[in-house]
């Protein structure tokens, strides 16, 4: 398992998601996010489900859970701007009484224990940004009810050939001003999307469309999140599965090959851990 990264700085995740909500939010994106979530869960809806969103970010997936029929939703994030952006989504839904939004920290064991147990705990691309991914994962799994489902996505070291390089890039991006950040974003597109070939410019448009159609997210918002995401740790898929199995979970679905591996675990009905 990896050693936790130091935390000399923190990327402004919430400002990125606030920008996404202002410029890119649409009902189409909510529908796509809902479809993606339900497809990996192998469900048609979330009716009767108590949903916990750890690191709610833009709030898009909490809104998708609400529209999928979740009975109760609790969304929290460490970043105050993410909390406010999620509240915008909550207001978009009409301010439902069964959906609460607040600031919280996945590394705060007392806070996490105070959340109780939920039937579906969701945390997409969050726990590896806490500064201690394994403690965050330990705290998060405790919020899953016996017989409940744990849906997480984590940056995978299995598909990342040079994690140290990307950690250096992330530090540089966080230390940069706005102009340099924009240059780095286009550097990423030029090198990793266009492969330094101007004839591949249509690929950028295709990737932007594909990005929206997979999880409902924004191509450039996710590039900013990737380049800036700090603190940051990569984890091996097997380490995640091994840890969860030791805590009474069974892997029911997995999607790999992208930067983040997506895992769906089910906790044993007799776990009690």
Describe the structure.
There is one protein chain. This protein is 46% helix and 18% strand. The protein is of the alpha/beta class and 273 residues long. The relative contact order is 0.17. The protein has helices spanning 13-23, 27-41, 60-67, 80-92, 109-114, 133-141, 163-175, 178-193, 201-215, 219-228, 237-246; strands at residues 50-54, 72-77, 99-103, 118-124, 144-155, 249-255, 260-267. Strand 6 and strand 7 form a beta hairpin.
Give a nutshell description of this structure.
This protein has 273 residues and is of the alpha/beta class.
Count the helices. How many?
11
Radius of gyration: 18 Å
State the oligomer: single chain
Could you tell me the CATH topology label of the largest domain: Rossmann fold
> What's the end-to-end separation, in Å?
21 Å
Average pLDDT for all residues: 90
What's the arrangement of strands in the largest beta sheet? 3-2-1-4-5-7-6
Give the tally of β-strands. Answer: 7
Topology pattern, helix = H, strand = E: HHEHEHEHEHEHHHHHEE
Classified by CATH, the class of the largest domain is Alpha Beta
CATH architectural arrangement of the largest domain: 3-Layer(aba) Sandwich
The helix content is 40-55%
């Amino acid at each position: 398992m990896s050693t936790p990264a130091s935390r000399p700085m923190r990327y402004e995740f919430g400002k990125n998601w606030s920008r996404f909500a202002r410029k890119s939010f649409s009902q189409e994106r909510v529908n796509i996010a809902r479809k993606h979530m339900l497809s990996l869960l192998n469900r048609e809806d979330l009716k009767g489900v108590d949903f916990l969103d750890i690191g709610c970010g833009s709030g898009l997936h909490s809104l998708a859970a609400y529209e999928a029929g979740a009975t109760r939703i609790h969304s929290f994030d460490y970043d105050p701007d993410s909390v406010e952006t999620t509240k915008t989504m909550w207001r978009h839904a009409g301010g439902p009484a069964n959906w609460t939004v607040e600031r919280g920290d996945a590394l705060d064991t007392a806070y996490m224990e105070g959340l109780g147990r939920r039937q579906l705990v969701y945390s997409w691309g969050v726990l590896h940004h806490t500064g201690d991914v394994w403690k965050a994962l330990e705290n998060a799994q405790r919020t899953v009810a016996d017989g409940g489902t744990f849906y997480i996505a984590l940056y995978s070291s299995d598909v990342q050939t040079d994690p140290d390089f990307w950690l250096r890039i992330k530090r540089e991006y966080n230390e940069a001003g706005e102009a340099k950040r924009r240059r780095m974003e286009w550097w990423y597109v030029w090198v990793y999307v266009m492969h330094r070939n101007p004839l591949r410019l249509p690929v950028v448009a295709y990737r932007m469309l594909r990005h929206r159609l997979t999880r409902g997210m924004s191509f450039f918002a996710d590039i900013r999140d990737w380049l800036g995401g700090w603190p940051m740790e990569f984890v091996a898929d097997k380490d995640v599965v091994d840890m969860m199995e030791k805590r009474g979970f069974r892997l029911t679905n997995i999607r790999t090959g992208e930067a983040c591996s997506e895992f769906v675990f089910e906790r044993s009905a007799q776990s009690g851990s």
